[in-house]
Design a protein that fits this description.
Number of strands: 13
Number of domains: 1
Shape: globular
Radius of gyration: 23 Å
Distance between the termini: 71 Å
CATH architecture: Sandwich
Structural class: alpha+beta
Strand content: 25-35%
Helix content: 10-25%
CATH class: Mainly Beta
C-alpha cells in the first residue's frame, strides 16, 4: 500500500511539473503576415518586391504603363488573363521589376486557376526588338499540371527550368486554387528551383549537360536567351488567371 501511495505521489508531481513547464514556456512565434518581412529576414538582407497594396516597383514588359490586366486583389498581384492568349494583345504582357538583379535568392507564393499557365523569369532584358520576356530570361515554370488540357513533356511541368530541366517526379504541387511556394536561387551560374520547400531542379550553366540540353531545346533559336547575367524578375502573362504574393528577394554576393 505504501509503495502504491509513493508511486501515485510521484505521478502527481510529474504531471504538475509538466503543466508548469508548459505554462512557463514562451509562445511560438506567430508566422509573418503576408507581404511582410520578419526581423530575422530583414537582418539577413531580404527585401520585399511587393508591398501587398500597390504595383510600385513593377512595370509591364516593354511598356510605360501597367495596363488593365494586372491589379492587386486581396493582398495579391492578379494577372487576369482568362480567355486571352499569351501576351494578351495590347492590354497584356508580363510584369517585370524596375530593378535589376544578378545573383539572388527569390521566393514567392503563387496560386493558379484550373489549367492555368504562367512562369517566373529572371535576368530579363527589355528592348523593342523582343516581343516576349522569355526571349532573354530563363523560366521557372508555373502550371496546373493535372488541369492542363494538352500534352506535356516533363520539362514543361511545374517547377521545371522550362524546356531544359524537368522538376523532380517526387515534387509536391498543390492543386489549382491553392497557394504554392516557389524559390529560385541563382549564384554565378549555379541554379536551384524549389517547390513547397523541396529542391526539384539543380544545374550548372557551364556544364556539358546544360549545353547539350540547350542545343536540344527551343532556346537555341533565341540568340539572346540567357546571355545576360543581370536583369529584371518577370511574372509571366500566359493567358490565364494567376495570383502572386510574398515576393521576397535577397541579393547574393
Amino acid at each position: 500500500m505504501k509503495k502504491n501511495y509513493i508511486l501515485l505521489c510521484a505521478i502527481v508531481i510529474a504531471l504538475l511539473s509538466s503543466c508548469s513547464a508548459k505554462k512557463d514556456a514562451p509562445a511560438e512565434s506567430a508566422p509573418a503576415a503576408p507581404n511582410t518581412l520578419t526581423e530575422a529576414e530583414k537582418a539577413d538582407g531580404w527585401q520585399l518586391l511587393f508591398d501587398g497594396q500597390t504595383l510600385d516597383g513593377w512595370k509591364r514588359f516593354n511598356r510605360d504603363t501597367i495596363g488593365p490586366l494586372w491589379s492587386v486583389v486581396d493582398g495579391a498581384i492578379l494577372c487576369d488573363g482568362e480567355g486571352l492568349g499569351e501576351g494578351s494583345g495590347d492590354m497584356g504582357g508580363s510584369l517585370v521589376t524596375t530593378r535589376q538583379f544578378g545573383n539572388f535568392d527569390l521566393t514567392l507564393d503563387f496560386k493558379l486557376s484550373e489549367g492555368g499557365n504562367s512562369g517566373v523569369l529572371y535576368h530579363v532584358i527589355e528592348d523593342p526588338k523582343y516581343k516576349y520576356d522569355y526571349e532573354t530570361g530563363p523560366e521557372y515554370q508555373l502550371l496546373d499540371d493535372s488541369g492542363w488540357k494538352g500534352e506535356l513533356r516533363d520539362e514543361q511541368k511545374a517547377g521545371s527550368n522550362y524546356d531544359m530541366h524537368a522538376a523532380s517526379a517526387s515534387k509536391k504541387l498543390n492543386p489549382a486554387g491553392e497557394w504554392n511556394t516557389a524559390r529560385i536561387v541563382y549564384k554565378d551560374g549555379h541554379v536551384e528551383h524549389w517547390l513547397n520547400g523541396q529542391k526539384v531542379v539543380e544545374f550548372d550553366e557551364d556544364s556539358d549537360d546544360f549545353k547539350s540540353r540547350f542545343n536540344n531545346s527551343k532556346w537555341k533559336d533565341y540568340p539572346d536567351w540567357n546571355k545576360s547575367k543581370t536583369g529584371a524578375i518577370s511574372l509571366q502573362d500566359h493567358g490565364a488567371p494567376v495570383y502572386f504574393r510574398n515576393i521576397k528577394i535577397k541579393a547574393l554576393d
